[in-house]
Structure formats: C-alpha cells, structure tokens
Write the structure tokens for this entry.
Amino acid sequence: MSKRKLGLLTGSAALALILAACGGGTDDATESSANGGDASEGTESEGSGVVDFETVVTNEGEVMDGGTLNVALVTSSPFQGIFSHELYEDAYDADLMQFAIEEIFSTDENFQITNDGAVSLDFDQEAKTATLTVNEGVTWSDGEPVTSEDLLYSYEVIGHPDYTGIRYDANFTNIVGMAEYKSGEADTISGITVNDDTSITIEYLEVHPGMLQSGGGIWSGAMPKHHLEDVAIADLEGSEQIRSNPLGFGPFAVSNIVPGESVEFVANEYYYKGAPVLDSVIVEVVPPESIVAALSNGEYDVALKMPTDEYPTYADLPGYTLLGREELAYTYIGFKLGTWDSEASEVVTNPDAKMSSKELRQAMGYAIDNDAVATQFYNGLRSNANTAIIPAFGDFHNADVEGYTYNPDLANQLLDDAGFEDTDGDGFREDQDGEQLVINFASMAGGDTAEPIAEYYMQSWQQIGLNVQLTDGRLLEFNSFYDRLEADDEGIDIYQGAWGTGTDPNPEGLYGRNSAFNYTRWSSDENDALLDKISGRADDEEGNAWDSEWIMTQYHDWQQYFSEEAPIIPTLFRNEVLPVNNRVAHYDWGYDADPEFGWHAVGVTQDEAVTE
Amino acid sequence: MWKTILRRVVVMIPQVFILSIIVFALAQAMPGDPFTGLITPQTDPAVIENLREQAGLNDPIPVQYVRWLGNAVQGDFGQSYTYKIPVASIIGQRAGNTILLSLLSFILTYLIAIPLGMLAGRYNNSWLDKIVVIYNYVSYAIPTFVLALLMLWLFGYTLNWFPTSGSVDVTLAKGSMDYYLNKGFHLILPAITYALLGTTTIIQYLRSEVVDAKTQDYVKTARSKGVPEKVVYSRHIFRNSALPIASTMGYQITGLIGGSIFIEKIFAFPGMGQLFISSLTSRDYSVIVALTLLFGVATLVGTLLSDIIMTIVDPRIRID
C-alpha cells in the first residue's frame, strides 16, 4: 500500500549467524507464468547463478473436506496486533490480516483496480468522481451485509480530527471537503455522497490516471461501522474491537488471538466468493532460528516471511515446494546532489555538489558488479537491477533499459574523459579542478552481509581510482542513517538505501521535485516534464493522458532518462520465498493469480504435513 | 532493622528521580524518533509534523520531562508509540510471562545447583565431583542461544516432548484448566534452559565453600561431638557455605523481571527482554523510559533484599 524505507536489517539480526552459514548465491525476480502441474524446486538459471522460482504449485491427491492449515509467520519479535487497514503500521499485521480482513478491490497483474473484488469502481474523470459499489453478497463474517456506511466510515475515521494513524495523506486531502472535516469545521465530508445502501460517490479536487492503481489514490479499505461505532475514534487502536475480535469480510474470521504470538481463524461461511475448503487456519510466530527445523518436522504448511539469507539451509527441504516471487522493493546507491527547502517544499539541486558530475555517477555504477553481489552475498535470491521501476510492475517496467552492469574499462574511460585525473600520483583521482576527491559513503548496519557488501563497493570504486570512505568510518544505525539523510548531512556524499515500492509504480513520490523523500535532492526540468506526464498533469496533442498505453510509454521514457542521469544507481531487485507443504493441493503466489483463487480455495490432501 | 529499611527506601526516591532524568534525556538524544521510517512518501510533511506535535515531541526536552513526570507520579506512563496501548498494559502483558518463566527457572536453578554443589564439595576429587566440574565448565562456556537452540532441537523437534514456540496454544479457551496446564507445559523447556545456564556460579561457590569448610574447626568440633556426618553437612556446613549465594539472591530475584532476550527470541516467548530491545530500535520512548526505570528500581530493591536475606541467613550480621 505504502512505500516504506527499508532497513538492511533482516530482523533476525545476529542470532541468525550461527545456524546459517553464508552459502553461495542465487536470486531472481522473474515472474513465472501461472501454469498447472507440479512446480519444480528453484533451479539455477544458466550462467548467472540467479535462482528461478515458480509462483504456482499443484500437488496430486484428493482434497479433503475441512482440515486446519498451519501457517508460520517468521519473525523474531511478537506482532503488534492492530487488525485494521486504517490503523496498522507493522507489515506483520498485514500478513495476519490477509486471512480475515480483505481489501475492497481486486487488482490485475499491473496492480490496477478491477471489479472482481468486494467493491466495483466506476471512475468518471470528467466529473472527477469515483463511485464505489459493494458487489452483491459481500458480507461481514458476523453475517451483516457490507454497506455504503461501512465504505464511508473508513473515510470518516481517517479524516477525523482524533484519528491516530498514519494514513491521512495527499490521497485524502484530495477529496472535496476533507480539509474542513479534518479541521473540525464540518461534521461530514461534503465531497462524499451516500447514494443508497451499497454505493457512495467521492468527489476529488484533482484526478489523475494513477488513481486507477491499487494504492494510487482511492482508499481500499472498509470498516464495519456496526461493530466499531461505539468506540471513540481516538480509542480505536487500543480497542477490543480491533485487537481481540476484529471483523472483516475475508475468507476466514478471527476466533482467538494470543497477543504477539498466534491467531486462530475459522472459516467464514458468509464469504462472498464461497465458503472456504478448510475449517480453520492457525498462524503462529516462529523465530528465524528455528523455522527450518520446524518445517523439517512438518509443523507448518506455509511459512510467511521466510528469511532469504538462510536460503541454502532450506533449499532442498523434503516435503515442501519453494515458491518464489519478486518483492515489491529494490536496493540502490544514491548520490547527494542538493538540499531540501522545507519552506518552499522543494528540492534545491546544487550544480556544484561533489557528485554533480553525471560521468562520475555513471562510472561508479559501472564499477560495481551487482550480479556478483546477488550471487555471493544473497544466494542468488537477488539480481542486478536495471531501473527504478521493478519488473513486478509488469508493463510499467522497462526491460530495455540497460542500467549499469560491471564494466570497469568503461568506468575508467568515463572518468578520464570527464577530467577526473590522478594529478598528485597518490593512486586516487582528483576532481575536475585538481582538488583531492574523497567521497563519503553512508551505509546501514544490519544483518551479516551489510559490512562485507559496503567493503566490496568501496573496493570496487577504489579500483577505478576513487577514494571512497565510510561516513564516520563505520556503518550507521537505521534511525541515525535516515535522520542524517533527511537533514542533508554534509558527511554523506553517497549512500546505499532501499525502497519498498507498494503497489503504485508512480516514481514521483520518491524522485519528484516536491518530494521530501527525494533524498538525492536531484531535479531537472526534463524530469519534471516526464513526471507531469506520468501523473496525468500534462497531455500530448492527441489528448492521450488517460490512455494506458501512452502512459506506459511515458513510464518507459522516464526510466530511460532517469537511468542516463543516474541520480541513483538501482543495484538489486529482491526475491521472496514461500515454502508450501506438499499436502496443500494448490497454491498460487503470483501477483497475476486468478482473482477466483484465494485462501478460501486452499485445501489439503491429508491430515498431517508431508515430511519426505 | 525496619528503620534501616525505611531509610533505604527513602533514599531510593532521589536515586530514581535522577535516574529518570538521565534515562529520559538519553532516550530523546538517540537519533530518529518513533515516526522515523513509518511515513509514506504520499504523506504531506505537514501531517508528519502534526503527528510529532500531537505526541509533544517538538517541545523542549525539559518541558517534555516535566509533563511526563506529572503523569508518571499518577501512575500514567503514557501510550506505547509502537503498540498503541498504554505502557502499563504492554509491560503488564509481558511481565506476566517473564515473571512466570523466571520464577520457574529460579526454582529449578537452585534445585539443580544446591545438591550438585554440596555433593561436589563433599566428595571432592571423586568421579562425581569431576563430572560436576566438567558440567560447570560446559554450562559456563556455552552461549545462551546455542544451548537454547540445542534444547529446542533435541526436546522440541527430535523427541517432540515439548512445544517449540509461544506461551500457550491459540486454540484453547482462556481460563479453562487445559489453558493453564498448556501454559505451564510451554514454560518447561525455556525454564530448564534458563536454569541450566544459571547454575554455574552457585555450584562453584558452594563447592569451594564446602571444600573449605570441611577442614574448619567448627566442623571438627561438631564431628568430635558425635554429630552424624549427614547432619554436619546439612546443618553446619551448608549454612555457612550458603552465605555467598544468599548475598546474590536478592539480585537474582529482581533479575527475574528483566527476562532473557535470547531465550525469548528462540522460544518465540513474548517477554520483557524482547520488549526492551524492540522499544529501543523503534524509539518507543515511553516504553524505554518506563522499562529502564523499572529495571533501575528493581536493582535498588535487589540490593536491599540481598542485605535483608543476609541477616536472615547469617544471624551474626545485623543492619541497623
């Protein structure tokens, strides 16, 4: 839903070092097509050392009626347990919610909203309105129908002056009358009309094509008003109704929670796509240190958030099929090129910044071998990134952008031509004015690979004659790193960071002129023009602004331009892995899965998990 | 003695006060705040600011401190930024688990250590003594998480005797007999692990004290009076040898509340150790300050308890 800063910390931290020796590497981010038949275990694709995974598994055997699915949620800390799309903050809560508390929209392989879900969307760009209609038969798990009041209640909660969560953002301020409601001047949101029992119409100040994207502008949750209306909005987060007996319209209903440890779900007979095959689902927190042993014993059928740094220890787990798919995230090297003007709310790019030479940035991109990093440090579960729009975004991703691959000769050539010469014979290049050039590199601590990877990058840059030092001479802690990055600390010239992308490919929030999260502080008129087109603020002569093919072209052009300018060098795409026991009859983990497939359709073929 | 105890408690008040100032200032001095890393790029920076403002994080630290102090003396330690429930509730949830676990392992520790220490001292240089000494070396040298993982692997996954994670099965109804039995069952493996690690010092002290005491005059006297050997050990020698252990017992009791991050992590057992570490990384100020204070008070109380225990165990010692 939302983009988030990612720490390099994998969560398991130091403890994982003992059990998981750092093996060779593999990683791939390709989406396999959804086909039937037995999925094979991850296989190394030729040459690159990157692992290819299937996203679908089908096992033989007759599906039992009922049964319990045991799910492990791999994390070393207890979950927070805020079961509400409007209020949760921790990603693990989202993993738990998927069984019971669904979003209202379904999406296609490009993460664009379709009408197969609980709610249909009718978007009118001329009138600047969106009409949401609850589809027939959509019912809360207590048997009450989902109504227009429930759709509205999400907006009323998030927009409320007492709202305690973090979802009140530009997508809400864009609704007519929301500002007045937020400030307390109005008791209702004037831009939202309840049409009848099942539909509401929302009026927007501005509309853009990205709003048809999941997470792109239209809120995708609904709240059971009959269940929650007795709770004051300021108290919702701590309320029983959210934490102990939350209500959703998903395939399962929460029946029991042990705070921070486990959740029991039972089948929701009212589920609008049909009653689930299984009787119940039990999700338990399992620490990364023992998940492999637990799986070998067949204690769990599915393991969510499997630690990828221990991949070699479970690559050939008997009784399980490993599914893989691309994580909605990428890692990158950023170059500090200016400062943030908080008054004007825009970046101020400094043409004289230390890293302002495009050739210098490009050369640093060509000097590093990300395929080697992916295979040596990440067991092939990552792969060299070519652009800042990840392949999981389907047609938005431009596979033709070459990006930066290892080519030290070209790197040297670029630096020579741009006038970075070693004039004093110390083995390091001086800058274009013949001054000493020392580049300060900020990188985050966390996990056992953070230090060697930072060292590897610095050595690679030294090999093309650049003197790169760690900021402060050491790795920085997550909070400290982002604090200093946001403050445009002078001790940081380049940095390694990561972004979780959410499901909206629009790069403006990260690289736009007015985005505080544009940490490189890079901007250009051409970038503005391209982003205007992507965001639907600029049109061509034929008026194609809402034509999806035309928009895709703009995305592709932006990626090409952005890669050439190199304010960041995307380094790695990431893969995540899901072990599924062979007693699970069919599972589809692809982003392009059939909308009719879901947890309600999952069944098992025998009583106990398969362990051989 | 009661006067002394009262005086000691009164002295604690300024100590806790000073501690709270230091903890409060240091917590705020850490880079970042609870909202670092939570905000999405679509968020208007003004909204972020508003959240900070509402949380009072923009006020000068002394102002924040005074506000916090005002609430704290009324027992309100604020709301956890991460868990979104009052600090007292989250600490209460975890402390319940941790105290149960620590209490059981505390009892197990002494049940294992005292007989072993006494026997090793009584029969020193025998094969029994040698085994105890080797056991001691191993339990001292083995890192907590290695032992925890070994126990988990052996008794949890290989022999399948004990549950491997959590504090209770989710399917059981709260409050039923099965629920409490199941809860106790979940405690056994982590408690034994914890206990085994705690035995080293006690065994070592006890053993060397017993070895020492065997040649003391009062033992010789007892023996020459015809006191049976068994009684010599259980009454005369044990009482004297237990003094150094008794002196640390107070700390151990208060240590019960701290929990063990390693054991909690490996057995996925939500306790105080984990809460403390995660509150530090997420900059959950209210929880950090409350926990540090709690640990500080526990240490102060522990010192006092140790002194009191000493006077009970050793009648020669009097505090006045």
Summary: Chain B has a mean pLDDT of 83. Chain B is about 70% helix and 0% strand. Chain B touches chain A through 50 residues (CB under 8 Å).
